[in-house]
Each structure stands twice: as structure tokens, then as C-alpha cells.
Specification:
single chain, 336 residues, two-stranded antiparallel ribbon, 73% helix
């Protein structure tokens, strides 16, 4: 987990995330020789994390702004369903597929914008707003899909997005890398990126500087909804089908990657470069638990514990850097 002293200051990380990634690779290579360290398995890991990564590129913005988006899984599912349904309604033509993709992106952007508007205008915590909207959006996805799996096998555009390659690299991976670079550029070099950090780190000072924190907040959720839609569309294209449960639990995994990667839940701190390593750790752990044969229930337990530890260490580092005195168990019980 990468703890930063401030916005983009490049200070040494609290935890050396690359070393953790290397250690996990070495451990799994020894544990599962001839199985883990193979091109096919690493391609599987890349393909699995690229969907999370596409979401992560947008979801980092609400977190940096001091919020959270718990609706990205449902938004991804709805956008995927919309794209596939419109493609099928247009008889699988390229024009219909492109129209479906644009409509899916639009739906995701709308969901994100509504989250930001409701939270900023009414002062409702983003946790409550996005949790509620997650259920609403999921209900809409259930309704338009009739709670069934929608299969799409005859669209050239959908098939290429899901399985096509550029220079031998699967398109979903290429798209994720391009989006990752763009996100890095926005956060590091644009005015909006600086405003997102500032509004999350010190919203009152940012507002006094003449910056509309409400507009920044709405924009961050619009971005989050858009990348969730893109992830849902790519996922549907890869599977050549859409179902309202297809992105269930993705919001939790994306949150794990971001927090482990050093993005502070309190806002104003974190980098997309650190989040990449958090994503890699998550992908390797998920793959390792499958290869070892750990039950899905215990996989969720491991990821849940990982979030708790990461957030606890984030709070510890913040208190340490600010000079705040921390109470120990001995001091607490001695006062009793």
C-alpha cells in the first residue's frame, strides 16, 4: 500500500508494492511449478484484471475527491445489457453494435452524473447515494433483460472487441493500458486532476479559492460511471453475452485494488501508478487462490481482511505523518 505525504510528491512508499508483487510471483512459482509461471496463466491474469482496471481508472476520481462509488458493478451490468440488446435489435449490424456501445456509455455516464448530482446538491453521503443507486440500477438491468442471459454471437464488432488483437495483444488489455495512461496524464498534468486532489484534501480551502467543489464532485462521479460502462461493455463483448449479475462484486474488488494501492479513503491522496500495483496484487491473489483450490467464500474473506488492513494502515500513516498521538491498548485500559 502506497502512502503519500501529499499530492503527487513522489515520496518513498510506506510499503514497497513492487516487492510484494515479485514476492507473490516467486511464492506461487515455487508452490505451483509449471502451472503459475506460464504465458497462458499470465494472460489469464491480465485479462481478468483489465476489466477491474478499466473501472479503476474512473473510480479513483471519487475516492480522491473524498467520496466512494458503490454502484459501478450494477452500472457495468446495465451498460452491457443495453449494448447487447440494441445490437440484437439492429440485427447484429456494425451500425447497431456501435449505436449500442454509445448508448451503453451514455447510460453509464448518466448513472454517474445522477450520483454526483444527488450527493452534491442534497448533501447526502456518497456511500448512501451510490449504495441506493446500485440497487436501482440493478433492478433496471433485471427488468430490461427479463432476468435472463442475453447471448450475442453474430456481431463482428462485439466479437472483435472481446477477442480481437492488436500486435498480438488482446484488445481489452490494450484498451485498459491506453485508458490507464490517459488517467495518469489527467491526474498529473491537467487542472481538473489538481482540482480533484484539492477538493478531496481540503474542500473548504478549495471552495474559498473560487473552485466549485460541487462541479468537481459531479464530474468525478460522471467519470466513474463512464468507465464502469466501458468495463461492462468490454466484459459483455468478451463473454459474447450480457446478464444483470455479470459484474456482481466488481465494486468491492476495485475498492480493494485502490486502497491497497495507496489511494486514501479520506480523499486527496493516492496515485494511479500505486493503484496499478494494488490491482496486480489483487489479480495474482485471485489467481493463486483458484490454483490452490480455496473456496470462493474464503476468497472473499481474504479480500475483506485485505481491505481492513489496508485502511487501518492508511489511518496509522496519516496519524503518524500529522504528529497525532495514538492511544495504545495499555493506555486505554489503564484509564479504566
Amino acid at each position: 500500500m502506497k502512502i503519500l505525504k501529499g499530492k503527487g510528491d513522489g515520496k518513498k512508499s510506506f510499503f514497497q508494492l513492487p516487492l510484494i508483487v515479485v514476492a507473490l510471483i516467486v511464492i506461487m512459482t515455487i508452490w505451483k511449478p509449471g502451472i503459475f509461471l506460464t504465458p497462458s496463466n499470465f494472460l489469464s491474469i491480465l485479462l481478468s484484471i483489465c476489466i477491474y482496471g478499466i473501472m479503476m481508472c474512473g473510480t479513483i476520481f471519487p475516492l480522491l475527491n473524498g467520496g466512494i462509488d458503490l454502484s459501478i458493478g450494477s452500472t457495468a451490468a446495465l451498460s452491457g445489457c443495453v449494448t447487447i440488446l440494441i445490437t440484437m435489435a439492429g440485427n447484429y449490424t456494425p451500425a447497431a453494435s456501435l449505436l449500442g456501445i454509445l448508448a451503453g456509455i451514455g447510460v453509464g455516464a448518466l448513472c454517474g452524473a445522477v450520483n454526483g448530482l444527488v450527493s452534491s446538491l442534497f448533501g447526502i453521503p456518497a456511500f448512501i447515494v451510490t449504495l441506493a443507486s446500485s440497487n436501482i440500477v440493478l433492478g433496471i438491468a433485471q427488468s430490461i433483460s427479463n432476468q435472463r442471459t442475453i447471448t450475442c454471437l453474430h456481431s463482428e464488432v462485439i466479437n472483435w472487441i472481446g477477442t480481437g488483437k492488436i500486435l498480438g495483444i488482446p484488445f481489452p488489455v490494450v484498451f485498459f493500458v491506453l485508458l490507464l495512461v490517459f488517467t495518469w496524464w489527467v491526474l498529473k498534468y491537467t487542472r481538473f486532476g489538481r482540482y480533484a486532489y484539492a477538493a478531496g484534501g481540503n474542500p473548504k480551502a478549495t471552495q474559498f479559492s473560487g473552485i466549485s467543489t460541487k462541479k468537481i464532485q459531479i464530474a468525478t462521479y460522471l467519470i466513474s460511471g463512464t468507465t464502469a460502462a466501458l468495463a461492462g461493455i468490454v466484459l459483455s463483448c468478451f463473454n459474447r453475452q450480457a446478464v444483470y449479475t455479470q459484474a456482481s462484486g466488481y465494486d468491492g474488488d476495485v475498492l480493494v485494488a485502490l486502497v491497497v494501492g495507496g489511494v486514501s479513503m479520506a480523499g486527496g491522496e493516492g496515485k494511479i501508478t500505486g493503484a496499478i500495483f494494488g490491482l496486480m496484487i489483487l489479480g495474482i491473489l485471485n489467481n493463486a487462490m483458484v490454483l490452490i483450490g480455496i473456496d470462493a467464500i474464503y476468497q472473499n474473506l481474504v479480500k475483506g481482511l485485505l481491505v481492513i488492513v489496508a485502511v487501518a494502515l492508511d489511518v496509522y500513516a496519516r496519524n503518524k505523518n500529522s504528529g497525532l498521538k495514538r492511544k495504545t491498548l495499555r493506555s486505554i485500559f489503564s484509564k479504566g
